[in-house]
Amino acid sequence: MFARRQPRKPLHYRYPHSGLTEFCRAAVGRISGIAFASPARSTSSTYRSYDITERYVSCSSCAPSQIMRSNITSRERCKQEYMKCFTRNFSTPLFLKRGETTTEINERNWQSFSDELNETLELPAISVPAQHVHWLLSNKDSPVKPFLATGMAELEGVHPKIKIVRDCNGRPDGDTEKVYHDGQKPQRRKRILLDSNVALGENSKEGNSLRHSSTDRLSELTQQLPGVPESVLQRLVEEFEVTYGEPEFIDVLYQNQPITRILSKVLPPEAQPPPSSYEQIGHVAHFNLRQTHIPHGKLIGRVLLDRLQPSIRTVVNKLGEVGGPYRTYQMDLLAGEDDYFVRVIEHGVSLFFDLRNVYWCTRLEGERTYMIENEFKPNQLVADAFCGVGALCIRAAAAKGCRVLANDLNPDAVTYCEDSAKRNGIDVGENGKFQVQCGDASQFIMNLGIDMSDSSSAEDTGVSNLPDHLLLNFPLDSPSFLNALRWWPSGENNIESPPRVHVYTFARGDEVRTAAEVAIDMVADGLLPEGGYVEPSKFRGEYLNEELGCNIEAREIRDAAPGKLVICVSFSVTPVLLRRMQGDYGLD
């Protein structure tokens, strides 16, 4: 049976601290200048040393107490590295008791408990003439449909799926279970497996031990399947010649079970329920573990790696929030290779990048598909001020033949974007259809208008240099970049339709406005700031639509946090809007 050690509160709960010296003394037991060491668990006579460096924590077991040299540059770094190290090593693991021996389950030995992880299910069955099997399984009016084994929670997520149609008497050809009725020839029959939790009713815990030798088929079915209404059984007997079949014993090995079920068995009670989702980025599985799961991160990583190799070779956990000028985050390697250069295939387009150096969100794949299928038209000019690794730009160029002007502040993202475009056969360069640059988004947007006003190509060719679509996908602060649009020329300049701008931003609803209405007001304030107000105006979308013809609209993209949504606000950059932004209120 599974047992667990008495829980201990984390060290930072048991020992309050007020400064760097007190913090380190409470955390690791001893501090001497810039060198310190910490004892391991009280159940061991050895010591475990911790080397806190500028970038990471490395832990190793050693016989004598050691003093490891460190480079502690700030109290905050000490606290962060302490938490990373001690939550990983000082946890309350699950123990397995076998006879007189108690063994801790961890990332190194969990597979050795296969006998405890494997499951054996005993499923009742009915015997049915082969010609009725398809109708009973597929027809919505089938009387047996609510009782099929496919609805069992124990079989959910099991791969490969369990076949619920079996041969009778274990014969591989399924040829005969010889049943004679009124002198007829033998029938070819099959067994259909049922849900033991439903069909056996109160006898589900005892299995099928109460077998009877009754010759009456209905009576036998009633006795063996007490959870099935007698009216259903009577119909099965009369219309489909159903008899009771031998039960089936199914072994569900841990290799075939879903990861969440395995984790629910190997994680201690305080770590339940187990993590239920992760993001796959190329060969990397990316978790965002809760605090209760972090002490067992190595075990979680090893379980997932064992189940999903070779498609998954690296398992990481996100540390902290996305931040910094390049919107990146730190990650902790839980299991597998220390390799973060990935290849992501999205709708036939291959993207290559180092996950540590750029921002990536798999959940935006649906939004990228929406923009390509519903907004972009063939051969249009698309400008992306925050292109990242270029997923949307490269897909638009490959699927719609769009001309692309891409920009990002992160030089690594720009390099990966350009390299991925080339690998996908796209013409990249100053004279090509795909141009990428590294710089500030405001300057990039501003230059779109300045380049046009200084060029005569629009007048000579009748084609505008302004983009058909401008994307600002920086939810943290996208509206603040809209003031750069005032540098765009406000004349018509042979533009058949005004450029369309798509602004992605975080928004929360308030007492009177939805999140979408709040986002529209944020965009309106970015375009036409209100100065000297006591309270900001609300519902400014009506003014943008009715007075300036912007055709503004908003779509909910995804949940970012409880009550916090990512909203895409799209609007047209009309000449009258540009004149308002440039301070010209005399002309319409």
Can you walk through the features of this model?
This protein is 28% helix and 24% strand. The protein has 588 residues and is of the alpha+beta class. It has a seven-stranded mixed beta sheet with strand order 21-20-19-22-23-25-24. A four-stranded antiparallel beta sheet has the order 10-11-9-12. α2 runs parallel beside α3 and α7 packs across α8. The longest helix has 15 residues. The N and C termini lie far apart (80 Å).
Task: Based on the model shown, name its key terms.
alpha+beta; 7-stranded mixed beta sheet; 4-stranded antiparallel beta sheet; 18 helices; disordered N terminus
Summed up:
This protein has 18 helices and 25 strands. With 588 residues, it is α+β, with helices and mostly antiparallel strands.
Shape: elongated
Q: State the helix count.
A: 18
Which blocks of ≥5 consecutive residues have pLDDT under 50?
A: 1-91, 170-178, 203-215, 455-463
The end-to-end span amounts to 80 Å
How many runs of DSSP E, i.e. beta strands? 25
Mean pLDDT: 78
Classification by helices and strands: alpha+beta
Let me know the largest β-sheet. Answer: 7 strands, mixed
Bin the strand percentage: 15-25%
Strand order of the largest sheet: 21-20-19-22-23-25-24
